[in-house]
Write a structure and sequence with these properties.
477 residues; alpha/beta; Aspartate Aminotransferase, domain 2; Aspartate Aminotransferase, domain 1; seven-stranded mixed β-sheet; five-stranded mixed β-sheet; 43% helix; globular; binds pyridoxal-5'-phosphate
Length: 477
């Protein structure tokens, strides 16, 4: 019988698989010396955009060739040691192989009588142990930090509801609920507040101190003011590593406020949560063991290939009571509840495998060393910036983000400096020598270098500053 084109023979599968692995291994071998990024040519963009879907099957070999020529040469750049943008780490190579295994295994990580379920349970147990959460903790791997924050806050909404949230939604709440985050809180908290029906109007942005950490006195005042106005404060979302500067809010003091005011404490640790593994940074996390829910992102500082986020909720039963629905077609007699009862998705990818395999391959001490090295590189970058006359250090939290500006002595016109740094960044990024992104602090445009990269060395820090200074000189002349 003729095999349908979708079904490869095992020989073909092996041959194509080897071809793909060879391609990726060659790319890995060249990653240090390749430009960080290449500009995507218009003709390649148009070719991808206008790819025709034909009635006839295409040859797998030709498709691999197209990926080789049109896709692989134009990545974000996060594999490179000189990529300092956003919070995008390179994937651990072993994690990439694990992803292939997970795809081939294709188990929906939901049913509780298959191996994939117990792999995810083990990962959740490791995560809760890392953050000193109790055995009652429930959790789930998610697509990323945004969804982890959303799920944590959905559990909070369920818990804090005075009506019947699941049946009647917000309409039965006797008072409007208010959430607090800092002015440096991530945009996904706003999305969660909007999606969950609180509305952006009821998400307070608390001012920050000189180090961009939530001002706890201002938090107390805001809670008091809202209560006086008949609103109902329900939760604080603190940051364990803000995306702009890597600031860690004073978690212990905020936990005190939450205890005094009967508020839920959620922590967004999507970028910085795993900084707790660095002995030097660990003291900043004091109080994290007191929080009600936590979002962390293995696809950032654990170097898991995208996508892998994680939510932990101290009271695991609560997570189930916020999300559990078991229609008749999903009834089972396993003592273990299906994972669909703890979150949004029914069918779920086997994200846990890459985290489970990579964590063990690297080991806890390996991660302590890697994360400590990233933080040490950030400190070294800050020292280099301070030692040079052509840069000014603007902000640096305790983790691995550095905000700075190209600023020659005597240059004081802030608007002109904003424009100069904007132009510099564009030129440097186009050069392929290094890649960085930007943000705004106190209304000013700043260059922002984030180091979540096991390949970055001290020489790459010099390469970044040299490339930035060169671009600065070019755009100034
Ligand atoms: C502090 C913080 N929170 C949340 C997120 C969102 O996480 P994700 O992009 O995985 O959805 C990010 C992403 O960079 C982040 O840095």
């Amino acid at each position: 019988m003729e095999r349908p084109p979708i079904d490869l023979s095992s020989d073909e599968f092996r041959r194509l698989g080897h071809q793909i692995i060879d391609l990726l291994a060659d790319q890995l071998a060249g990653v240090r010396d390749a430009p960080v990024r290449r500009v995507l040519p218009d003709e390649v963009r148009d070719r991808l955009l206008n790819t025709r879907l034909n009635d006839a099957p295409a040859s797998p070999g030709a498709l691999i060739e197209q990926v080789k020529n049109d896709i692989l040469p134009y990545p974000l750049g996060n594999q490179s040691p000189r990529f300092f943008g956003w919070v995008n780490s390179p994937p651990a190579p072993f994690g990439v192989l694990a992803e292939l295994l997970a795809a081939a295994h294709d188990a929906p990580a939901v049913n509780s009588d298959i191996a994939a379920y117990f792999v995810e349970m083990a990962v959740i147990r490791w995560m809760r142990t890392l953050f000193r959460f109790p055995a009652t903790t429930g959790g789930l791997l998610t697509s990323g930090g945004s969804v982890a924050n959303l799920i944590g806050l959905a559990a909070m909404r369920h818990m804090m509801s005075q009506g019947n949230m699941r049946r009647l939604g917000m309409t039965a709440e006797p008072a409007r609920m208010v959430i607090y985050t800092s002015m440096q809180g991530h945009s996904c908290i706003q999305k969660a507040a909007e999606l969950l029906g609180f509305g952006d109007e009821h998400l307070r942005r608390i001012p920050v101190d000189s180090q961009y950490r939530m001002d706890v006195a201002a938090l107390r005042q805001a809670v008091e003011r809202d209560r006086a106005n008949g609103l109902r404060p329900v939760a604080v979302v603190a940051s364990a590593g803000t995306v702009n500067s890597g600031a860690i809010d004073p978690l212990d003091a905020i936990a005190d406020v939450c205890a005094d005011e009967a508020l839920w404490l959620h922590v967004d640790g999507a970028y910085g949560g795993f900084g707790i593994l660095s002995p030097e940074a660990a003291p900043h996390y004091k109080g994290i063991e007191r929080v009600d829910s936590l979002a962390i992102d293995p696809h950032k500082w654990l170097y898991a290939p995208i996508e892998a986020g994680c939510v932990l909720v101290r009271d695991g039963d609560l997570l189930r009571s916020a999300f559990g629905v078991a229609p008749s077609y999903l009834q089972h007699d396993s003592p273990y509840p299906w994972l669909s009862e703890f979150g949004i998705q029914q069918t779920r990818g086997f994200k846990a495998l890459k985290v489970w395999m990579t964590l063990q391959q690297v080991g806890l001490q390996g991660y302590r060393d890697l994360i400590s090295a990233d933080i040490a590189h950030a400190k070294a970058l800050q020292a280099k910036i301070q030692a040079r006359p052509d840069f000014a250090l603007i902000a640096a939290g305790p983790l691995s983000i550095t905000c700075f500006r190209y600023q020659l002595p005597g240059m004081t016109d802030e608007a002109a400096l904003d424009a100069l740094n904007k132009a510099l960044l564009k030129r440097m990024n186009a050069s392929g020598k290094a890649f960085m992104t930007s943000t705004e602090l106190k209304g000013r445009f700043v260059l922002r270098a984030c180091i979540v990269n096991f390949r970055t060395t001290d020489a790459d820090l010099d390469a970044l500053l040299d490339a930035a200074a060169e671009a600065g000189k070019e755009v100034k002349s």
